[in-house]
Amino acid sequence: ADIQESGVKLRLTVVDTPGFGDSINNEDAWQPILENIESRFDAYLAQENRVNRSKISDNRIDAVIYFIKPTGHCLRVIDIEFMKRLHTKVNLIPIVAKADTLTASELEQFKAKILADINYHGIQIFKPVSDEFDDPETVAENREILSKIPFAVVGSEKLVEHPNGTMVRGRSYPWGIIEVESEEHNDFIKLRQMLLRSHMEELKDTTDMVLYENYRTQKLLSMGHVQDNNVFREFNPLVQVEEERRAHEGKMQKMEGEMAAVFQQKVQEKESKLKLSEEELYARHKDMKTVLEKQRSELEDKKKRAEATARPITPMEQHPTKGKKKNIFSGF
Prior knowledge:
The chain is 51% helix and 10% strand. The protein is mainly α. The chain is elongated, with a radius of gyration of 49 Å. The strands form three sheets. Strands 3-4-5 form a three-stranded parallel sheet, with helices on both faces. Helix 5 packs across helix 6 (200-222). It has helices at 31-48, 77-86, 104-120, 136-148, 188-198, 200-222, 237-309, 315-318, and strands at 2-5, 8-11, 64-68, 92-96, 151-152, 159-161, 167-173, 176-179.
C-alpha cells in the first residue's frame, strides 16, 4: 500500500493472517507466522553475505499488530503462547479489537489485566522510550502513548452521517455514533501516529539493530561460525555509543581531578611562599628591632657619659685665686 501526505510517499507492506486462532486445535497455530518472519530474516542475511551488496531488498517485518479479543477477563492461552514465541523476533504491539463492545470502566480494567499478564510472563512489547536528549513535547507525547497501551481500537470501512451533517468514518448505533478517528471514542489516532509518524524509524531501528542482530548471531552460531574476538569484535552501535559516553565522562572526571590536584598544589606552593616571606619579614623585623634597641642603648650610654663629663663649672673653679686672703706673714 502506498501512502502519500504533503508530497511524501510511503510504501507499506501489510501481511494479513486470516483464520489465526479459529481452529478447534490451535496448537502451533503461530508457527506459520513465525516461519514467515524468520524466512524474511534469512533472505536478508543471504543478501548480506553476497559479494555484491549494493542492492539489498529489505522486506523484514518491523511490527506485528496483535488483536486481542475483548473478553473483558484476561489473555487467552493462545494469546500468551503467540506473544512468547514472537516477542524476540518482532516488535509486538497489542491491540484490543472491537473496543466499542466494552464500557469505559470495563475497558480500563481489561487493559490493566492484559498488561499484568504480559509482565508476569516476561513478554516484551514495543514501548516508546524517552531519553535525556528529547524535548519536553516528545517526552509528553511518549508518555501519552504509553498510557494508551494496549491500544483499544474500533474499525470501520463505512462513512456514516454525523448529526451535524458531516460524513465520518465509524459505526452507527441506536444510541449514537462511534467515530474511528476520534480520540474520545478509541485509540486509533494514537496508534496511527505511533506507527506512521512519531516512532516509525524507532520500530525499524529496533528491528535492524536488536531483533535481527540477535537472530543473525544465533543463526551463524548454529551454522558453526565462531567469531574470533581477538581479530574482530562485533558490537552493538547503541552499546558502543554508551561505552564512548562513559569513557568520555571518565576522561573528563580524570581531567577535573588532575586540574584540581594541580590547583591545590599551586595553592599550597603559594601558601608556602607567603609563609616563608612572612617568616623572612618577621626575622628581618626582629633583627632590625634588635639593632635599633642596641643602638638606642648605646646612645643612652653615651648620653649618660656626656652628661657626666659635661657638669657645670663653679665660679671658684673658674677663678681659683679670687677672694683668697693674702698671707701677711709670708715675708717672715
